[in-house]
Amino acid sequence: MAKFLFTMLPANDLGLPTRLVPIARVLADRGHAVAVFNPAPVPAKLIEDAGLKNLPMPSRPMPDSSGDLAQASSAWDVEQMFGALFGNEEFVRAATAVHVDLVRDFDPDIVVDSFGLFACLAARILQVPLVSVLQGNFHPASRGFLWWAGERPDGLPSAAPAINKVAAEYGVAPVARCVDLLAGDLSLIVGTPETDPVSANAGVTHIGPIIWQRGNAALPDWVLSLSRDQPVIWVYSGNPRYADAPTPIDSIVVIRAAIAALVDAPVQVVLTTGYQDLPKEFGTLPANFHHAAYLPGPAMAERCDLMVHHGGHSSVMTGLSAGTPAVIIPTITERESNARRLVELGAGEIVMPRDGANGEKHIDLAEFSAKLRRVLNEPGYRGSARRVAESMRQFGGAQKAADCIEQFATGTV
Fold first, then answer.
1. Where do the domains of the chain lie?
2. At a CB cut-off of 8 Å and minimum separation 6, what does 282 contact?
3. What DSSP character marks residue 162?
4. For a designed S-S bond to 219, which of 12, 43, 125, 223 qualifies (C-beta 3.0 to 4.6 A apart)?
5. For residue 133, pLDDT beyond 90
6. Sheet holding 268-272, edge to edge
7. CA nearest 196: which of 151, 269, 147?
8. Are the CB atoms for 232 and 295 separated by under 8 Å?
9. What CATH number belongs to 3-209+395-409?
10. Can you give the pTM of this predicted structure?
11. Percent of the chain beyond pLDDT 90?
12. Better-predicted residue by pLDDT, 378 or 58
């Protein structure tokens, strides 16, 4: 049996753990030693729900990253996003040391990572084999987030200077781009070639959608008892607020838009926030709204007639795998990238928010309402989503990913 450490960018939302936890659970069920690292509160709940070991944060002082969230939210690609978040050399040095401690102390045979730049660097420093589990637009062989907008501009920020300075202190060769660190010795792409295209010569394996749901998970009775006479719309915001004050990556606009557009509509709305608290500003929700901090995603996607969400890759995969169309309000360019892929597949519509002077995002309510009605009432959207769902079934998901990782561990790939 092998020993696996699952790592990721430790953000306080569910997107990355949702794709890694199912693979970790399969490998643990097959008898391997498995641990996960994401100490943020919301991912920790998902990891606990899966019955997996979540490693604590190594005890080291961490300076502020001084990241530019506005630039990260509008980044052209991963390289610019990392440049916006990780340009501070002292933060890079401290974060690298934390992850070197983490990997060295657990001593895995393989690190399995999704978007954890410093875990990938630590694996390289310690010469531990790396498996990456990425959405297509995170991979270095993709066209980035703004794939429809032409050639990448020259001179965009990169964290490579800071990364290379620290890497040299460990005797590791420099990289031209930080994003190249994400490509593992084995690269697995969540999604399919049509949802998550990368260069044909990238040497990746598409593994289809991966969404966490416990085997015995079921929707609560109040969801199951919702009337079949009115459409059910599932509104998922992800993290509404990442800080006390507005930030450019917040998704509270999704909740505000849904309430404004659907308060008097003949529909039933299920609002979930991914283990996040519902902001107090909303007070009592409209009578046709029902809130839950968390519901099993695949089951809820199958029960609803339409999803409304922020464009996170895992949300897109959840809807498509159930054959359920979506209206997306993407809150950063990475999410816009995912949303535009879904629109190209004919499985939904996109409504772009605009930034207000107060730092909050706003939408055109008339446009949003019209697109909600269109996607609900025109069967072509659901037909396209079901076609994609059918095509996804051939890729194997978490079981296929675990097979690939086991084969890699034994040298049979």
1. 3-209+395-409, 221-392
2. 255, 259
3. H
4. 223
5. yes
6. 289-292, 268-272, 232-236, 306-309, 326-328, 348-350
7. 147
8. no
9. 3.40.50.2000
10. 0.96
11. 90
12. 378
